[in-house]
Amino acid sequence: SKGTIWWRWTAPTSARYHAATGGVYDIGRTQNTILSVYSGPASGVNFNNLTLLAFDKDSAGAGYSALSFDAVAGQTYYFQVGAESRGKLQFLLTPAPANDAFAAAAPLYG
């Protein structure tokens, strides 16, 4: 990748979250992306103490990356996003739907 961008986020509630990349364009072409989420203590520019929780490269199709992870309220998480070339980047972080478990799938009627 040409480089990465880092974000720091503190979870407001304990829940499962989805993170995704999108909108990475360079001269009209969609670019491949990587997406990682880490937890742990970080000091200054030293990220050696971080623990990788999830990683994805392009699994969402069209060069987009997506992953899910369980966050704990009050804990800080670090997101690393990269692309093959320079361009505009979109990063999305949302709580998972209330019923995001296959084993607890709700029935549909009608």
What percent of residues adopt helix (DSSP H or I)?
under 10%
What do the pLDDT scores average to? 81
Could you give the order of the helices and strands? EEEEEEEE
| Residues in β-strands, percent | over 45%
How large, in whole angstroms, is the Cα Rg?
16 Å
Number of helices: 0
Q: Count the strands?
A: 8
Which residues sit in consecutive blocks of at least 5 with pLDDT less than 50? none
The dominant shape is flat
Multimerization status: single chain
Description:
The protein has no helices and eight strands. It is an all-beta fold and 110 residues long. Helices cover 0% and strands 53% of the residues. The protein has strands at residues 3-10, 15-26, 29-30, 33-39, 51-57, 66-71, 76-83, 88-95. The mean pLDDT is 81. The strands form two sheets. The chain has a four-stranded antiparallel beta sheet, with no helix packed on it. Strands 2, 3, 6 and 8 form a four-stranded antiparallel beta sheet that branches. A hairpin with a 2-residue loop joins strand 2 and strand 3 (29-30).
Summarize this structure as a short list of keywords or feature phrases.
mainly beta, flat, 110 residues, 4-stranded antiparallel beta sheet
Write the topology of this structure.
Elements: E1 3-10, E2 15-26, E3 29-30, E4 33-39, E5 51-57, E6 66-71, E7 76-83, E8 88-95
Antiparallel strand pairs: 1-7, 2-3, 2-6, 2-8, 4-5, 4-7
Brief account:
With 110 residues, this protein is mainly β.
